[in-house]
Amino acid sequence: MKLTLRVWRQKNAGADGAMSTYEVDGISQDMSFLEMLDTLNEELILKGEDPVAFDHDCREGICGACSLVINGDAHGPERTTTCQLHMRSFEDGDTIDVEPWRASAFPVVKDLVVDRSAFDRIIQAGGYITAPTGAAPEAHATPVPKPDADFAFEHAECIGCGACVAACPNGSAMLFTSAKVNHLNVLPQGAPERETRVLDMVGQMDAEGFGGCTLTGECATACPKGIPLPSIAAMNKEWLRANRKAAKR
Amino acid sequence: MNNFAEYATGEPVVDTKAPEGPVAERWDKRRFEAKLVNPANRRKHTVIVVGTGLAGGSAGATLAEQGYHVVQFCFQDSPRRAHSIAAQGGINAAKNYRNDGDSIHRLFYDTVKGGDFRARESNVHRLAQISVEIIDQCVAQGVPFAREYGGLLDTRSFGGVQVSRTFYARGQTGQQLLLGAYQALSRQIAAGNVELHARTEMLDLIVVDGRARGIVARDLITGKIDTYFADAVVLASGGYGNVFYLSTNAMNSNATAIWRAHRRGAYFANPCFTQIHPTCIPRTGDHQSKLTLMSESLRNDGRIWVPKAKGDTRPANEIPEDERDYYLERIYPSFGNLVPRDIASRAAKNVCDEGRGVGPGGQGVYLDFADAIRRMGRAKVEEKYGNLFDMYERITAENPYEVPMRIYPAVHYTMGGLWVDYDLQTTIPGLFAIGEANFSDHGANRLGASALMQGLADGYFVLPSTINDYLARTSFTEAVGPEHPVVQEVLAETEDRLNLLLSVDGDRTPDSFHRELGELMWEFCGMARTETGLRKALERIPQIREEFWRRIKVPGTGEEFNQSLEKANRIVDYLELAELMCLDALHRSESCGGHFREESQTADGEAERKDEEFSYAAAWEFTDTGASPVLHKEELTFEYVHPTQRSYA
């Protein structure tokens, strides 16, 4: 396959960026999208040009590092991570636009690499259960009903890639935040910190500059792990409940 | 003639700090004998932790909970992305919830035997003891393990053991355990007890007066190289499987932290012990950047075969039954398709070497579910393996319900690593190594669902106990800062190395060298090794290294985000580590576990151990680049599990 790539190039956080056009040839349908970019980069290095910077690591869809907007879609046309997208999803002769996540809370580091540390700070604000090592009771002391365990797992699958934010017209992080709130709040082990968790995490999310949620649903459509849209409603309920409880005190 | 292979043998390692006495009491004894640090004094001690995977994440969180000041590093943009996240299968624990005869002693026994009698009994027993605490700890953190309808934890059997002791969270156990550790670490970061440096890569170790006192690390965004100081340094930087270029490891997993520590004096043990996993998706061409594992559970119902005739290029479905060779069932009638990982991998290599491999380049064998679908019905197969079949189809565009899967072995895990004593301390006082970065518990072959167990045992429980002893017994009166001459020297060496990489301006990319080295290692130090092959590799590696420093091309500068520079610098270390791996494989002229020397096999082609000669861990001491290292042997004694030859026929 022969393709035309239009790639966002930006030297660093402070520099202006622009789309640059590259031609790549000899692309196999079996290549992953990132292997196609590897091919481009090998050529650029030999030409003495700066290769395109992009985040990637496990290349099997679980670490959450890869983060490209391809032809306007977060992670491209298939519902998966960029690393699991293969070139057979494209046609010979296609022009493909490749951009970084776009959100004010995710500033560009270089080219297609963005800074997602805001997600880490949301987790630091309350996305954990306080259980110092050594203090744990016997694992079977607290049975967890299977439906609750399954609900927790479904939300715990989030890989923190940020596609939800990139896909959202408001740059909102509601799906990411709600996934962690719901994972921990449904479990009996998470109950003691149930209220502070949701209040603190939502507070941090707002402080980081993520936009508000207008329920467009783009986040859940882009999510490679299928975190469901009702996750947001469930977090809103938790948040209202926590505020009501705080007001009563 | 290459003289790297003419190594000297130094003093044996005699003191491993493992206490004497009944094996079941040794860990308690060691914990009691270890000196403690007064809680009020812990804040005064800084501990550096490199890596945030299962071992590093859990260690950082636990040390901070104890009151130490932790400074932690990861090269990823977030601690949550460490490669532990990709582990699929599960985590072993001797809980005996099934009442099926499991016990700490049985897990201990299985692990020593599975490691083909090349692990230290004291360590393995401790691992089995701690396994039960790990499950408690993770459940308390909210790790969503699979549960049964009664609300209790589900388990399954894994990797051919006869008890059901593997706890799991669908096919994402590593992810869930890692997020548990990451969240515990996040709590300590928010509390100000852990100072986290993400996108910061360790490039060297600072050793002052014989003790580890800090590291040199590069901020990957700004390119700034800085020094960091501590009273102890913990390496939790993972394994070195990426020496092979193609592996199931993440692209950025690398050996730099452990190799630089080795160069500064830490012994490197059993580097040739690498695990090749039999069920991975074959490569499709030269563009291949990494390999993807398919869960081993597929071998429970899939049948493995190749055509009987060489060079048979007909599609699988057109090859009649009597022209197929179900070679595992033929060679190992009693275990069939369920033989252990190393045996299945070698058998696949053999039939492909005979020219009977399938798929592009003939590097693949069929894993066929047609019989399973006929027997159980498609719905049942879908229920059991649906997610794996989807994953396979996404990568290969072939529907495994209709055509057989193609699989081929790939490098998956490294049992070797920095030599550590019972306290997980390396031969450099104050330098500890935990998780896959050390060599301690798996011997010559790791059992399924044991890597997660070891990472978390080291990080949550072992290191936080043993490091106290070192900190309590050592006086830290002399402050080490950036002005110290040793520090200046290490910093200058690092800067010079990166500047040299940038200044060569040759005509070959970092990847081209990495790929060349990887192919060489795969051919001569992969699934089957021979003296001739290893000698060939030992001759070739210095040539590649010489060419690397003459022809490498790294664009850009060191004062910016520069992924080519990161890669090139990691390859510098692979080019030295590869040589040590080949030497270790050459010197160990026996077969054991994942290390198969063709010269040492039984009449029916099975691995033959030579206990009289090789019942030791080989700990190598660095001398100089390209110069032969010194071998120190740690004799292994087996008081509880007596060595036997494995048989699966």
From TrEMBL, chain A:
All copies of domain 2Fe-2S ferredoxin-type, residue ranges: 1-102
PROSITE patterns, sorted: 2FE2S_FER_1, 2FE2S_FER_2, 4FE4S_FER_1, 4FE4S_FER_2
Lineage: superkingdom: Bacteria
NCBIfam families per record: PRK07570.1 (NF005746)
Keyword Iron carried by entry: yes
Coiled coil regions, renumbered to chain: none
The name this protein goes by in its record: Succinate dehydrogenase/fumarate reductase iron-sulfur subunit
Keyword field: Iron, Iron-sulfur, Metal-binding
Cofactor: [3Fe-4S] cluster; [2Fe-2S] cluster
Organism of origin: Streptomyces polyasparticus
Stretches assigned to the 4Fe-4S ferredoxin-type domain: 149-179
Family the UniProt entry places it in: Belongs to the succinate dehydrogenase/fumarate reductase iron-sulfur protein family.
TrEMBL record, chain B:
InterPro entries named in the record: FAD-dep_OxRdtase_2_FAD-bd (IPR003953), FAD/NAD-bd_sf (IPR036188), Fum_R/Succ_DH_flav-like_C_sf (IPR037099), Fum_Rdtase/Succ_DH_flav-like_C (IPR015939), SdhA/FrdA/AprA (IPR030664), Succ_DH/Fum_Rdt_flav_su (IPR011280), Succ_DH/fumarate_Rdtase_cat_sf (IPR027477)
Residues in FAD-dependent oxidoreductase 2 FAD-binding domain copies: 47-452
Domain of life: Bacteria
SUPFAM superfamilies per UniProt: FAD/NAD(P)-binding domain, Succinate dehydrogenase/fumarate reductase flavoprotein C-terminal domain, Succinate dehydrogenase/fumarate reductase flavoprotein, catalytic domain
Keyword list, A-Z: Flavoprotein, Oxidoreductase
This protein's record includes keyword RNA-binding: no
This protein's name: Fumarate reductase/succinate dehydrogenase flavoprotein subunit
